[in-house]
Amino acid sequence: MPKFFSIIIVLILIIQIIFSFFYSSNIITQNNQLNENQQKYDNLKLEVEIIEQQMADLNSIKNIKDSSSSANLQFIKKTINLNN
Amino acid sequence: MVQRHKILLIIFIFCFSIITIRFFYWQIIKSPELKEKALSQIYKLEKKIPSRGKIFSSDNFPLVLNQTNYKISIYKPNLQDSLDNVLQKIDKIHSKFIEENKIIFDNFKNNDNQKWIDLNTLFSDSEKNQINNIAGISFQKTEKRYFPEDQLAKDVIGFIAKNSQGSNIGYGGLEAYYNKQLQGKTGFIWGPQDATGKTILTKKSWNSSASDGQNIHSSINRSIQYQTEKILAEGIQKYTADSGSITIMDSKTGNIIAMSSLTATSSATASASKNSAIADLFEPGSIFKPIIVTMALDTKTIDTDYICHECSQNRNIGQYTITNWDNSLHPDSSLRDIIKNSDNIGMSHIITQMGLKNFLDYYQKLGLNQKTGIDLQGESKPNMKSNWPEIDLATASFGQGIVVTQINMLQAFNTIANNGVLVRPHLLDYFSDDLGKKTYFKNKPETKVFNSQSISDIKSILKYAVENGVVNSIKPKDLEVCAKSGTAQVAIKGDYTNSSTIASYIGFSPCDNPKFTMIVTINNPKSSPWGSSTAAPIWFELASKITHLL
Q: Which site among B46, B63, B68 would you substitute to test the A interface, given the most A Cβ atoms closer than 10 Å to its Cβ?
């Protein structure tokens, strides 16, 4: 009888150790995945930010004014009469 | 032998007691403190800083963006190369790096006790990636505001700076007024950390996610704002004025289309600290006359057939004499000629007939005694006096002795443009978040101040005054305008002087179903003090350019 109990206790201990290893490795894997995804998200966000900034720079009135000395930025007021 | 055993036993018991007492001390008495220390070593509280919201113009062009930068830190013991070589490598990637931090580096090199330095030089993401593999170097992410249009609408936008707690907050303009919405919600993660210091999410972890700030979509029209700033800067220079302000609003919705305040010294660059259009109080002068006439028409004190029989002479009230701006007299002036000639004497008789009670009643209805509530930080409250002797009521008829902000005046005058309905001026069109959810601005309920007949009458008078007055020669022929010029003397130490004036022009176009209402104020123009020859040309030049865009 005591031998039986000893075997049961040892088995339970082994199962617990295996389970805790599996559980902790699962947590670590998930956390690594989470960190990777977070990193990818941050990089993409940064890329979007840089592209948005470049687009804004290209389309800014400041850029048009600086890039062309002949640009007077006066609004076009002439109209075409299509009836004729 | 037995004696030795006894001594040994006593020593054991003594040692055991000491250990037990020590255990008791650490495990019972010091338990809470040590538990806390242990938790702080195992668990980590990580702060997630949200990105601040962006600000857009009415054409969805970003006026303010965020720019991610990195601050650099150098840890001497981890350097695998000499400090000089490392600095040279960084300097090749980020020019002038050594030059900018020369004093700091000299101290760092000569001080063996200093192992670590944090530098304020900002590195871009690509620069960071090139430097990242140098041992002993680490980076700290930081965000700053980026303005694709540089100084455009700077006084409307405001700026951000650190407060006493070291957090970024908005100062002035939209940045301050909508600081709460722009800054978003800071997130926190609390949980055990791994060997590299990264937080591990477990069932025991606590996570409150960060949410980025909301984006502001403003009513500022980028092209019109650009023209406004350009023409105002040129005007200030041309008329050798001290400063000037222009505000343009959508007559129906109250949306601010453009707003600019410039000083002669700043020229084309707006002051980031003060927006004169909402912060500076001034005596409006003759641009206030159409409002008084509308009040008088609305109370039926006078009608459009009114003739001023008392206008053949200056008016004396006590020790004071009311004269016209050019000392002329206009006997038997009609109502529209009183406005056309900007007749102070006629106006003083009209307000006296209308009475103080009616005047104050409309003054309050037009919101001239309080802030407009425009969504910008820094608006001043107009002063409202409690004592009104007869002379003060008379001078109020031509806008002297009362003080308002430019935005107050625009809101009140716009009531004429908007068929007698008062709308609150505002800049926010809607908020948007990263998921595309939009929250539209809800304005205060509109209030009807004047009836439609009074509005129709005053519009006809203003149109007549523009087309037959001195400004007609400079008015673009294809532009229908209802407007009034004003020249207010500035009170210095309680006395009015001719040495300093505020020239202004306010109006809307076209007269029926107007697209915009605009006010131009020029402070202390030295080339000519008159609103009709300084503020009015600026108004017309700008109006002719923007009318096609609205």
A: B68
For chain A, give the number of residues. Answer: 84
**What's the gap in Å between the CA of B148 and the closest CA on chain A?**
5
ipTM for the complex shown: 0.74
CB contact under 8 A, B62 and A52: yes
Closest approach of B307 to chain A, Cα-based (Å) = 43
pTM above 0.90, yes or no: no
Q: Do B200 and A31 touch (CB under 8 A)?
A: yes
pLDDT of B267? 46
Tens digit of each residue's pLDDT (9 = 90 or more) over B173-193: 999 999 999 999 988 888 887
The burial class, CB within 10 Å (0-12 / 13-18 / 19+), for B119 is middle
Which residues of chain B does A34 touch, with a Cβ-Cβ cutoff of 8 Å? 201
pLDDT bucket at B528, cuts 50 / 70 / 90: confident
| CB < 8 Å to B144, chain A | none
- Give the tens place of pLDDT for each residue, B236-283: 999 999 999 999 999 999 999 999 999 887 544 444 457 999 999 999
Q: What value does the mean pLDDT of chain B take?
A: 89
Torsions phi, psi of B17, nearest 5?
-65, -45
What sign has the CA pseudo-torsion B135, B141, B145, B148? positive
Residue A83 has pLDDT above 80, yes or no: no
Provide the pLDDT confidence category of residue B492 given band limits of 50, 70 and 90.
low
Paired with B492 in beta bridges are B495
Query: Distance between alpha carbon A35 and the CA centroid of its chain, in Å?
Result: 10
- Residue B433: φ, ψ to 5°: -110, 180
Torsion of CA B58, B60, B61, B65, to 10 degrees: 110
Which residues, 6+ apart, have CB-to-CB distance to B127 below 8 Å?
B70, B93, B94
Alpha-carbon gap: B57 to the closest alpha carbon of chain A (Å) = 12
Residue of B nearest to A72 (CA): B227
